[in-house]
Design a protein that fits this description.
- Helix content is about 35%, strand content about 25%.
- The protein is built from 11 helices and 10 strands.
- A hairpin with a 6-residue loop joins strand 1 and strand 2.
- The radius of gyration is 19 Å and the shape is globular.
Length: about 270
């Protein structure tokens, strides 16, 4: 539990306290997330970093109670978002939270987008659901322009397979922004993209934070990509937070052996003696 949990809760957009998520049997569970604490302030970009299986994506899905049940279950902790106790919300209240206030983008846009509907129709679906009275076609074009697609009308009328990977990911970000969320959870948003496009997507996330005051939780296995993006970083291993702090401090003087190993795994163009 936080030493200053109340103070953080009062100021934070999101405050996660002692979160534990188990999978499998009750008698012999797999502890995917084991007593995790983290928080995000308004307008912050926070990175949650760790290898596959470390628990970072499960932590992220827990924020809107998207853990697949009954296989997985949140067994302990508090998730406080804008003063709401997420774990106590009714189903109807959760539907208002998901997409409208907490939105997600994932690492494989090609599998997240439905191949039988146009990109514009899919972005418009969230607007029709959560923003009654808004002119959907105009709003879709505005969103696609906001994420840097050069011909929004063409992109809106295209099917996912007609767009490149980078354009698909921009469309996914547009979809996530459709209901003006306060928190964007970006789960490995650049993993499936080449290096040049990775930088463009990360730059876009920073730009969206600056223009919209958006808070972002960036989930990644790569400490290298957070250096110029995240304000703070949490390093996760085996379901626990092993190190946290301001990004520059953690990258310059990592305290935990696991963090040092992650840094050594970052590819470098030049080796120095």
């Amino acid at each position: 539990m936080h030493d200053m949990g109340c103070a953080i809760t009062d100021k934070a957009l999101l405050d996660v306290q002692s979160l534990s998520v188990h999978f499998g049997s009750v008698s012999d569970p797999v502890r995917a997330v084991d007593g995790v604490d983290f928080h995000i302030f308004p307008g912050e970009i926070v990175a949650l970093v760790g290898e596959s299986g470390s628990g970072k994506s499960i932590s992220a899905l827990s924020l809107a109670r998207l853990i697949p049940e009954p296989a997985g279950r949140i067994v302990d902790g508090r998730i406080i978002f804008q003063g709401l106790e997420v774990l106590k919300l009714k189903s109807s209240e959760l539907r208002k939270l998901r997409g409208a206030r907490i939105a997600y983008i994932f690492q494989e846009p090609a599998t997240s987008l439905n191949p039988v509907y146009t990109v514009g129709w899919q972005i418009g679906e969230a607007i029709r659901l959560h923003r009654k009275g808004v002119k959907v076609k105009a709003e879709v074009a505005k969103l696609l322009a906001a994420v840097g697609l050069p011909d929004p009308a063409r992109a809106a009328g295209a099917y996912p397979h007609e767009l490149s990977g980078g354009m698909q990911q921009r469309a996914m970000i547009a979809m996530a922004l459709a209901c003006n969320p306060d928190l964007l959870v970006a789960d490995e948003p650049t993993t499936a993209l080449d290096v040049t496009v990775q930088k463009q997507i990360l730059d876009l996330l920073v730009e969206l934070r600056e223009k919209r005051g958006l808070s972002i939780l960036l989930i990644t296995h790569n400490l290298g990509i957070v250096a110029n993006v995240a304000d703070r970083v949490y390093v996760m291993n085996n379901g626990k937070i092993v190190e946290s702090g301001e990004t520059k401090t953690v990258l310059r003087t990592p305290q935990h052996e696991y963090t040092r190993k992650l840094l050594k795994a970052v590819p470098r163009l030049h080796k120095t003696a």
